[in-house]
User: Fold this.
Amino acid sequence: MVTQIFEEISPADFFYRNRDIAGFTNPSRAIFASIRELVENSLDAAELASIPPDIYVRLIFGESGPESGIYKLRVEDNGSGITSRHIPSAFGQVLFGSKYKLKQSRGTFGLGGTMAVLYGQITTHKPAYIVSSTGSTKVYVYRIMIDIQRNKPIILERRVLLNKEQWHGTIVEFYLEGDYFRAMPKILEYLKQTALVNPYANITFVDPKGRMYKSSRVTEKMPPPPKETLPHPYGVDVETVKRLIRVTPHQKMLDFMVAHFHRVNERIAEKFLEFSGIPKTRNPKKLEPQEIVRFVQMLKRYEEFRPPSAACLSPLGKDLLRAGILKELKPEFTVVCQRKPSTYAGHPFIIETAIAYGGEIPKGGDFVLYRFANRIPLLYDEASDVAFRVIKSMNWRRYKVSQGMPIAVLVHTCSTKIPYKTVGKEFIADRPEIKREILNGIREAARRIQRFLSKREHVEKEMRRLSVFSKFLPKIAKFSTELAGRERQPEIEKLLESVNTSGRETTGR
Amino acid sequence: MEEKQQDDNVSTVGKKKETVASLEKLGQRLYDQMENGEFPWIKMPSRSIENICYHPDLRQYVLGDRSVKRSARNIRHIRPLTQLVWTAFFAHKLSKQRKTSTLRDVYYSAQAYQMSFKDQSESDNVITDLETVIGIPREDFNVFPEERSAIFGDLTIEYNVPGYEGKQMNLTSHPDGLMIGPALTYSEFVKTSADKVFAIEKGGLFTRFVEENVHKKFNALLVLTSGQAPRATRHFIHRLNKELELPTYIFTDADPWGMHIAMVIISGSANAAHLRDLTTPDAVWSGVWATDIVNYELPTDPLTEVDIKRLHELQRDPRYKGKLWQREIKTFMKIRKKAEQEAFSRYGLTYIVDEYLPAKLEETK
Assistant:
């Protein structure tokens, strides 16, 4: 007989063993993922406080030199800061974070920052250095490591400094193994696209060779921050309902539903309970497990729930999107569209699209596709993304657009739950509702770019036409003057002018 | 022996002056249009296929009443119009300086004036436009194709070209014949002892005729067309017929293509419908006929698909309405054979001169 030994593993241990799924696959990906996670945390922290973000990223070689492959990464922001007692957990405990309520945010799992620190620790065995202040009179400085098996932070050092300047923000610095030069193109592309989709942010990056890349904000305006909402009946599962029942103070199903579900009022709750055959006065805490399962099934089957509101979403908005595109892509022309809110499986979402033409956009190949989800750029696995498939499926000729034109297509998906296919946040799955909205959004932008292209074509044609007249008419004048044996050439300026203003041509036979 | 003197009214020198004047008039007209604040334009007979018809009295193709206007106001016209004006300018210069140019030359010369033609066929086409506009063949404004045809026989001509003015030449002076080039085309005819013209399709037979003294034996001028006769040669035959009143007999291969060489000398081509004085309606096709193949039991080749197709086209062609033509076409179709002029060599080298030629002359007189 073989005895099986079951052991519990901590979340930190789980991610230690499965770091591939969080994007820390190899030294090059790891360095990219670390920068990305920390930059996103910083952006969130600044936006939470409605402060235009100032983010400084510095990557230098570790003390043992460039050959060791050890780097020191420092990320600073001017965000809300973390309260002193939460600092160790925020960076030393996996699945700890402020992101478990329902609203749009960049990260989803509360993994990001800790995962980067965890990766640094397992590759260099050095502590992380965290400085943070919420703008109070004190600045807290920590040196921590993670107890991986117990998923607990180990505080090596804690210092409190006086905060004379009322600084607020967070600084994270730690060592990690990486391969910057392989990761460099992706990192620079990531920072460029991040600057595009956060045009109100200053982002500075200093790389190990001392080169500085800086993107300055073009606006102070920020999109309104998202509001927190309750879960929508279509979006909950059995576990969520069990947790809600555990915390609810309500004794009746009717009150329970109105209190804990999004866009459920008394009238709808009554009708639903009637539909599902559950008495209004039933105590939710007394529901049997099978009843809870049935309750969730009935929630999904009931068609009269109102769609979720988009108040919990924070799309970029047309003006900011345009500003970001103009800033980073410097196109000749751009159109931006925002679709109305829509939902899939109880999760609200909004699609923003844009098409940019010319300028610094490369021509001669496929279109450039920029994908964003909750204001973060998606850089890997483009071909698997729903937006890529939508673009491929469209008949672009209808819009006077052909391959080889300098065209960039941009798709921004905002949702309380982005349907990523992987934990690494690389690409969005083929949800039919989302696919349809992306398609409509790109079509809308394409129609407007078509108008632009037609107009441009018209202007170009007119220019060509004028150049034909001004090329040939003087020659006719010259040769007929010589043929006629005249001294002076005839007046043709007026004729040329008339072509220019009337802009029409006769069609003589 | 009768001598014929050149009539002064149709002297080639006078013709040149007329050409120069026409070109200047064209320039004048365009100049005035522009001075009047008008976009320059020209009007000319349409050369589209719908506007070409056969004129039974003139016995050649002519252009109908439709005309086209080319205006610099129209973006599609301005380029060809400019090319036309340049060509007129260039032709004028050639004529004034008494220089000649080939079609290919014109194509390249244009580049010196930043007047690019896409290819030679575009420049050839513009030259044809100019011919149509001023109603004068390009040879008159000194633009010639590459030459390949020749003449031999007792005809004395006087040159007009610079450096040769007044110089006379007898066309028996060279046994290979003289090339019908620009100088010969516009020479004056002084005198001749000949009383007929033989136009011959192929160089081999032309040489044989010279060697066999056909020009003496038959009192004839021998013209080598080298296949389809160039326009200068057709014009030359026309002049021999018109100015010297010499009847013309044409000898070609016995196939649809040979037959058509004869027909173009007689009735002209659709391509030259805008021009006159290229045809010799009284010329006759003396052989080799399809019926000759039968009567002389000539060695033959079978007609190809293309030959048969061509015969069907010719059968419907208005120029081929005559009884002789229809009979020969039908005979070709019946025997489905063709023969070359050289086929007579099976009866000995001189048979064609001694037997066939006198017989055919008698038959087609």
